[in-house]
Amino acid sequence: MSGNTFGERFRITTFGESHGAAVGVIVDGVMPGVDIDEAYIQRQMDRRKPGQSSVTSPRKEYDVVHILSGIFEGKTTGTPLMIILHNHDMRPEAYQDIQQAFRPGHADFTYLQKYGIRDYRGSGRASGRETAGRVAGGAVARKLLERRGVQVLAYTTAIGGIACSSFDEQAIEQNAVRACDPAAAAAMIKKVEQLALAGDSCGGIVECRVRGLPPGLGEPVFDKLDAELAKAMLSIGAVKGIEFGAGFASASMLGSEHNDQMNAAGFLSNQAGGILGGISTGQEVIFRIAVKPTSSISLPQQTIGTDGQERQIRTEGRHDPCICPRIVPVVEAMACLVLEDQFKRQAAMRS
Amino acid sequence: MSGNTFGERFRITTFGESHGAAVGVIVDGVMPGVDIDEAYIQRQMDRRKPGQSSVTSPRKEYDVVHILSGIFEGKTTGTPLMIILHNHDMRPEAYQDIQQAFRPGHADFTYLQKYGIRDYRGSGRASGRETAGRVAGGAVARKLLERRGVQVLAYTTAIGGIACSSFDEQAIEQNAVRACDPAAAAAMIKKVEQLALAGDSCGGIVECRVRGLPPGLGEPVFDKLDAELAKAMLSIGAVKGIEFGAGFASASMLGSEHNDQMNAAGFLSNQAGGILGGISTGQEVIFRIAVKPTSSISLPQQTIGTDGQERQIRTEGRHDPCICPRIVPVVEAMACLVLEDQFKRQAAMRS
Amino acid sequence: MSGNTFGERFRITTFGESHGAAVGVIVDGVMPGVDIDEAYIQRQMDRRKPGQSSVTSPRKEYDVVHILSGIFEGKTTGTPLMIILHNHDMRPEAYQDIQQAFRPGHADFTYLQKYGIRDYRGSGRASGRETAGRVAGGAVARKLLERRGVQVLAYTTAIGGIACSSFDEQAIEQNAVRACDPAAAAAMIKKVEQLALAGDSCGGIVECRVRGLPPGLGEPVFDKLDAELAKAMLSIGAVKGIEFGAGFASASMLGSEHNDQMNAAGFLSNQAGGILGGISTGQEVIFRIAVKPTSSISLPQQTIGTDGQERQIRTEGRHDPCICPRIVPVVEAMACLVLEDQFKRQAAMRS
Amino acid sequence: MSGNTFGERFRITTFGESHGAAVGVIVDGVMPGVDIDEAYIQRQMDRRKPGQSSVTSPRKEYDVVHILSGIFEGKTTGTPLMIILHNHDMRPEAYQDIQQAFRPGHADFTYLQKYGIRDYRGSGRASGRETAGRVAGGAVARKLLERRGVQVLAYTTAIGGIACSSFDEQAIEQNAVRACDPAAAAAMIKKVEQLALAGDSCGGIVECRVRGLPPGLGEPVFDKLDAELAKAMLSIGAVKGIEFGAGFASASMLGSEHNDQMNAAGFLSNQAGGILGGISTGQEVIFRIAVKPTSSISLPQQTIGTDGQERQIRTEGRHDPCICPRIVPVVEAMACLVLEDQFKRQAAMRS
C-alpha cells in the first residue's frame, strides 16, 4: 500500500490497523513557532470517537492524543509532528467469526484480492478507525487555518430519507446526529434507533461550508480546489459521491440560471459553490457528500467464504447504525488538510 | 501554476493556452515496445474536436496530432512521448471585448485574483482547449489498457432535464449528443438547438463504465480508485459532482439494500459501483458526473469590469450550447489515465 | 520541514528529535506476505547504536524496535509499517550550556535562521539520532532485497589519513572501525583514541558495494541510480562528497583508460562503478563517501551566541570521535532504500 | 522511463531524443508577471551549443529557442512554459554502424537491458543533447534567481591532469575550456587538441559557486540543499562524483581544522561549503564535480554486438574530446533549478 500520504506541502502520512497496537499520523510541513497542544487536538478526536450517543457505536476507543515529536516548549519547530493514539478496548474475538467470510459492503473481499493476505480483525487498515489519524492531522491544519481566518464547518443535512429544512448552526453540535435542523434531527435519531433495533443501517448527506477563504486559492489544472476536495472526500470509506454548489442539479439548469452574475458588491449567487476554474472566488465554498449506509448490519446476508462456499453472515459487533455524525469531523479534517496544503502551494507559487 | 501534472507512475504534464501557439502533453511512464501511432491518437482527438454537429461549436481546431519524441521505428522506447497540437483558427479579436470584464461562470475573475495577470484570449489556460492534451495523453493510456483487456466507455445520460431511459451502447457514437438512448438523444438535440438559438445553454449527466478490470486495483488509503477518479473528473472544467454506483441515492437507502451480497457466482448487485474500500471488485466500475451548463452564453448578464465598474456582458463567439458530447472523450481519457497509473502502482506494490 | 520523506514507491517518512519522546519511521510500499520481525530490524539497529566500542560514544540509546502496524500474524500485510524507538538515557542538562551559542560545524545556526526556533537539546532533529529511523526503514528494504538476491555492504576504507590497503570482507564487522583491512583498522583505532583524549575528532572514507544487481536498474533522466544514491548519501549529516567507480580520479583519465570495454564474458573493468547512463550494468555497484570529522569536539572553539556576542565554546557530552563506524549501517540503509525503490519503479515501468 | 521530471514546486519535465524531431522542456511553477523572453534563454543555450571552438564538437545544433506557452504580452502568466528546440543537422547515418554494437562508456548496453529496445541514433534519450531542455529550464530559474539576488557561476578547474592555480572570474568565458585560470586554460586547450588528434578524450573538474544565498535555504532531512544538488549533478551524464567545501579532503582533517568557527562578523572559514545540516549558512555555496572523459573516442575498443559476438568499435562522429566547457552551463542550469525550487519550498514552509 502506498497511498498512505496525503498533501504536497502540508502532508500527512497515517498508519495503523483497527486492532493493532496503535493508529496515528505524521504531520509534515507545519509552520514553526505555532502553539499546538494535545488538548487542542484531543477536542477534535473527541468529536470523532464512538460512544457519544445512542446513535453511535458503544465501543470505547478513548483516542488519547500523544504528540511524540515536532513540539519544543509548547511550540512547533518546523519538524514533523508524530501523533499516536494507542488502541484499547479491542475485542478481536468478536471478529473471529468473520475471519473466513467476506462481509457485504466491506473491503474484505477486495483487500484479499489485492494483497493476498488480510488482517480480518475489525477490518484492519480498512476500518473507520484509520480516520483517527486523519482527524489528528486535520486538527493541526485547522489550527493553522484559524490563524488565516478560515473556518470549516460540516454537518448532516439528511439521514435515512429525512432532510433538514432549516440551517441552525448552533444546533449542530447539540444533537446526536450533528444535523443543522433540530426538528429534523429528532426525527433522524428516532429513525436511526429503530433501524439499530432492526439490525439495519442507513445513509445520509453531509454538507460542508468553508468560510473566510480569500479568492485565488486552488492550483489548476489537475489540482483544482474542487478536484483536491473531491479526492479527499472520496478517500473516506463510506462516501459515494460529492457535489459542489448546485451540484447534480446543475445538470438540469440553464446557463442563464447557473452562472453567478456579479455587481460591484460581488457575486449575486453561489451556484458554483465558491469555486470557478478550480480557484476560490472568495465566497463560501460549499459541497455535499453522499454517505452510504453502514455496511455492518446484523441482519443475515448472503455471502461466500474465503473458500468460495456460499454462506450467510450477520455482522455482529458494536457498529454505528448511521455513520453521518461521526463522519462530520472527518470531513472537516480532510477539508482542512486540503486547504492548508493549497495555501502553502499558493505561497510557493507567488514566491 | 504547478498542478499541470497528473499521475504517479503513468504521468502526463500538459501545457498550452487556448490562443497560444500550441497545446500538448508529455506522457511519461509508457511501457517500451508498444505500437502507438499518430492515427490512433488522432481518432480520440477527433471525437473531442468542435464542429462535429449542430450541437457543438463551429470552431475548427483541427487538432492534428504530432508525436515528437518517445517513438522509434513505430514503437515506444520507454522515454517520454511529447505530443503537440498546433493552434489554428484562433480569432482573438472575438475575445477583445471581454478583456476588461469578467464573464459569469468563467475563471476570469479567479485567475486574475490568483495570478494578477490574465491571458484573456479565449480563457487562456482555463479554456476547454486545455483538455486536448488530456485526450492525447489519455489515448496513450487507452492503448495500454486495451492490452490489459480493459475498456472505458462514457456517454451522456441526461441533458437539459431529458434523461435516457434505455442503454443502447451502439447508439452512443451515432448521435450528436453521445447519449445511450437514441430516442432521448433526438429530444436532447432539439432542446440544445433551441437553447442555442435563444443564446442560452444547458447542463447534463455523463456516465462512465469501466469493464474488464480485475479485482484488486486501487491504492488505499488516500489514493483509492474512486478518490483518484473523483479528482480526475472534478479537474475537468465544467464538472460539478461525481457519484459512484448508487451514489447520492445511497443516502436514502438501508444497509440491507445497499450492501452487495455475494454467492458462488459473484456479486448479486452493484450498488457500490464496482469499488469496495477503494479497490476494484472485478465488477463493472460505474460512475456519473454532473456537467454544468456552458458558461458562455450570448444572453446579457450582469458583471463587473476589471476596474470594478458594473456592466453587462454577452459572451459572443462560437461556443457549445451543451458540453456533454464533447466532455465524453475527456471523461474517458481521464479515466484511462487513472486506471493505467493504478495498474502500474499495483505492479510496483506486488514486485 | 517537509523533506522527511524519501522514496517514491518504497517510501519512508521519519520523525523525532534527539531528546524528544521517540524517533521512528513509517515504511510504506512494503510487499505483502513477507516475514519481517522485530529481531531482524533490531540487528541492524544494534550495528548503529552508540557504545559499541572505545571509538564510539558511550551513550546508551538502546534503540529497542517496536513495530506498531503493518504486520499480521508475523507477515507484512501491504499496509504501512510504523516502527518506533523510544528515547532513553537523555541528559538534556548536558546541552543546556549550548542553548545560547552556535556550535561550530553543527546545524545550530542554520536551523535558527531557517525556523526561527531551535530545539537545542542534542541537536534536535539535526542529530545523528535521526538516522535511527532510516536504519529501521532500511532494514525492511534490506529484507526485501535479500529476496531479490541483492547484497549491500559498506565499510570504512580510511580514517584520519590512514587508508586500507587490502580488502578483507570478513574483517569488517570484527573491528571497531568497520575497516576492510585489519592492520589499518588497528592503526585507525589507535589514532581515534588519541584524538578522543585530545578532545579532537577526525574524518574518513566509507565505501559501499552492491552485489547481485541485475542490469537495467535505475530511472533516467533525473532519477538515475547514481543520482538517487548521491542524494541519499548526501542527506546523511556528516557526508561531504560521493564518487562512483573511478570517481574523482576520472578527471585525470583518458577516455581510452576510463571506458569499460567488453568481451563475450562481460565487462573487462569497472571504472564506471557499475552504472552507465544512470542504469546498472549488472556489475558490482561501487561508490565512496567522504565523511567529515565529528563536529562535536571538546577543544575550545570561537563562536557567537544567539545574542550575536562572541564567545568560546567546548562541546562537551558523549560524542563519537570518528563517525565512520556508525555511519556504515546508515550508508547501507540508505542504499537499500534507493535500490528497493528503484526495483519497484522498474516493475511499474515494465508493467 | 519516469524520471523525466525534476523539482517539486519549481519543476521541469524534459523530452526528446538526440535524433528525434525536437527536444525541450515544460517549466512549471514559474511566478506570474515576470519578463522572460526567448533571447534571455537563447543566451544560455548558446553557451551550451557545440561548435563553439576547437575543443568542442563541430556539430551545429543551433538550438533556436521557441516558447510556445505560458507567456502573454511578454510576461509569464503562472502557467507552464513549454520551450521547444527543433533538431537539425542530424546525420543518423553516422550512427548506423553502431546500431548493432555497444559503445564502451555509453548507455547502449544498459538501455537495451532496461527497455528491450534502443533508439541507437546518437544515443537517443541518453545523449548529451537531452541537456538542452535542462539548460532552457535552468535559464528560467536563473532569471527568477536574479530577482532574488542569487548568482550561480560554474567553471573548469582541471582538465586532463592540468589544474587551475588562480581564480580569475573574468577569464572564464574568455577561454574555450571555461577555466578560471587563463594560463592553465592555454595548456588545457593544447592538451585537448592533442588528444582529439589522437582519437582520445579526457576528463576534468568543474567547480560551482553560488553567491547571494540567504541563510536558511534547504529542506532537511532528506531534501538537504547539498543532497538535492548532489542528485542534480549526478543526473548529468558524465558526472562521476561531487564534493562540497573541503569535500574528500575532509576525510583527512581534524574536527578542529574542519569546523568553521564564527565571530561577530560571521564565519571565519568555509570548509563546509556554505551548508550546515543541509541548510545554507549565508556564505558562498561551493562544490566541485568530477567529469569523466568523453566516452566517444575514435581509438579502437573491444566490445560486443547486440548478438553477443565480440568485435572492435571506433566511435566516429563529431564529439567533444573534453566535455567540461559544455557541461559548465548545464551545471549552472541544474544548480539554478535546485535553488529556485528550494526558495519556493521555503516560502511554503514559512507560509
TrEMBL record, chains A, B, C, D:
Pfam families: Chorismate_synt. It comes from the Bacteria. Its cofactor is FMNH2. Reduced FMN (FMNH(2)). NADP(+) binds at residue 48. SUPFAM superfamilies: Chorismate synthase, AroC. This is Chorismate synthase. It comes from Paenibacillus filicis.
